């Protein structure tokens, strides 16, 4: 104890400590680091019917509690994706499930029972059989009194192949909904047919096991899972104050809840610059990560972002945010 007291009485020690503090501040401050340009807008499920996300569980049937419809689009369909890009999306997120005939159906839920007039899971059906289902069957905004999309969703469930062919140049974030490593291998086999240039606009995320098997088969593809996030961010939190970025952060995607961002060294601009330098995309989502699919869905939400934020933004309402940022360009 006496040794420590004597040590801290020495001016040289205080100079060293102050010097370290100044270094950490300057090395991680965004005050002198500018990142120009508009943010990237990531449209979750394209243009979709929205619902209250509070209290959601994995098995919650969200189609049974949608808000009063403001448009006619159903999530994860080609018309929905097309409109999302028209509204200003830079990237569209979509969900995929394997089918009985080893295609990938673009559909959100693990089971068919909630949204469609079918039952069971996609892997029990061929893609042709899934197309016969009415994916608008289960949507209601008034507790089942009316079903505004019933009868309008037949033949609207697309395959991933259809989406890729219809949008040959656009950017997608593909969500593998299962935790089956074989599904990751099958998706890798499918994506391997595309050129390196096309794959620059494709990112895949999902469960640790399918993403791990996908990454092993396609090491240059940008991916994300809980495991990849932890392997990047945990060591970064420990060493990022020095400016060092772990190799595990390279060529991936990070989804950062807005409440977590300020705890990352260099947030926001210097952190974004560091990630850009290693070909990693940063997407900010709403909340603290505890709720499902929380996004920035209104101009009021945008006010919570750091000033001049230019990273990626997760939104469930591209129909609102796209026009907002388009006006800002003018």
Automatic annotation (TrEMBL):
Keywords: Hydrolase, Membrane, Transmembrane, Transmembrane helix. The chain crosses the membrane at residues 12-32. SUPFAM superfamilies: PLC-like phosphodiesterases. GO terms for biological process: lipid metabolic process. It comes from Priestia megaterium (strain ATCC 12872 / QMB1551). Its EC number is 3.1.4.46. Signal peptide: none annotated. Gene3D superfamilies: Phosphatidylinositol (PI) phosphodiesterase. It holds the Pfam family GDPD. The keyword Transmembrane applies. Residues 60-325 form the GP-PDE domain. InterPro entries: GP_PDE_dom, PLC-like_Pdiesterase_TIM-brl. It is an enzyme of class 3 (hydrolase). This is Glycerophosphoryl diester phosphodiesterase. It comes from the Bacteria. The keyword Transport does not apply. One of its GO terms (molecular function) is glycerophosphodiester phosphodiesterase activity.
């Amino acid at each position: 104890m006496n040794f420590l007291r004597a040590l801290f009485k020495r001016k040289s020690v205080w100079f060293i400590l102050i010097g370290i503090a100044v270094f950490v501040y300057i090395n991680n401050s965004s005050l002198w680091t500018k990142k120009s340009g508009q943010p990237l807008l990531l449209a979750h499920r394209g243009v979709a019917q929205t619902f209250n996300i509070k209290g959601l569980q994995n098995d919650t049937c969200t189609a049974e509690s949608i808000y009063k419809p403001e448009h006619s689009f159903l999530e994860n369909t080609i018309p929905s994706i097309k409109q999302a890009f028209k509204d200003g999306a830079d990237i569209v997120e979509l969900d995929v499930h394997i089918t009985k005939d080893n295609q990938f159906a673009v559909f959100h839920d693990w089971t068919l029972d909630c949204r469609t007039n079918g039952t069971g899971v996609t892997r029990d059906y061929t893609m042709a059989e899934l197309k016969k289902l009415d994916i608008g069957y289960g949507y209601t905004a008034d507790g089942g009194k009316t079903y505004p999309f019933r009868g309008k969703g037949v033949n609207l469930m697309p395959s991933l192949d259809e989406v890729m062919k219809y949008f040959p140049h656009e950017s997608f974030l593909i969500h593998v909904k299962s935790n089956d490593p074989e599904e990751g291998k099958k998706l890798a086999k499918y994506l391997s047919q595309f050129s390196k240039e096309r794959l620059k606009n494709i990112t895949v995320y999902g469960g640790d096991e399918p993403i791990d098997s996908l990454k092993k088969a396609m090491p240059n593809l940008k991916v994300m899972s809980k495991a990849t996030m932890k392997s990047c961010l945990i060591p970064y939190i420990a060493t990022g104050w020095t400016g060092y970025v772990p190799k595990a952060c390279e060529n991936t995607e990070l989804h950062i809840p807005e409440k977590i961002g300020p705890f990352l060294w260099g947030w926001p601009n210097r952190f974004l610059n560091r990630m850009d330098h290693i070909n990693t995309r940063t997407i900010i989502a709403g909340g603290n990560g505890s709720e499902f699919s929380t996004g920035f869905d209104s101009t009021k939400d945008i006010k919570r972002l750091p000033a001049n934020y230019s990273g990626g933004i997760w939104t469930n309402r591209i129909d609102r945010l796209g026009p907002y940022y388009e006006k800002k360009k003018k």
